[in-house]
Amino acid sequence: MDYPNDQAPGAPVRAGIPEHGRVPKYYAVKTQLAALLDDLGEGGLLPTERDLSERYEVARETVRQALRELLLEGRVRRAGRGTVVAGPKLAQPLALASYTEGVRRQGLRPGRTLICLDRFPCPQGLADEAGLERGEPVWHLERVLLADDERVGLESTYVAVARVPRLDTDFDPDSSFYGYLRDRLGISFGDADERLETVLATPREALLIGTPPALPMLLIHRVSRDTEGRPLERVRSLYRGDRFSFTTHLGQPLGTDDKN
After folding, report:
1. Which domain holds residue 39?
2. Three-state SS for 66?
């Protein structure tokens, strides 16, 4: 398929140029840098800011602004004192599947680092949202998500102690929680409600994930139930916006036709 103005699928319309045709200097440099990234390939080291400012005949601050946008978009990443071309984003499906399964499908090694596993009486807000009873004991499992040992997210899971009474002794924190429920306890997921939004990480979250606080994050809230419709878990998953994208398959809603 041919695309107008040599645009690839998903690229900004007219390469992001305003209708009045006046292009900010930093954006022109960003466009040139994008072409340079394609030439260098994944892992390629970019020239220094000084070299780039001389090459494109602009101020170093203009180069910095272009690099900042490429960094936020996940096109480049910091490596020591330099900047290198980043690899493709991880495409995680919006489905009732574990993080482990999604990462493995892309040929990467999933992992997790345990931050905390504690229990407390369920507060009213969590009870209302997850269909639990106020005051009943719940586990809070917090883990940093890894892909090939790179920190890419932070996950907090809340589940009733009555459903998983030996979570603190029988569960390996570096493994899949979904796999533990399925293989050790015989619990299967039935359905879930999920909400996705963009946020900035708190200072604590940014420190745990190892990102600048200004880096946009993708936040997913999920409330899951088992095959009998009973509440199972409430999860808050925070993913790096420069390393993740999410995919889903959409079908035609029941009761509609294709006439409109």
Report:
1. 4-85
2. helix
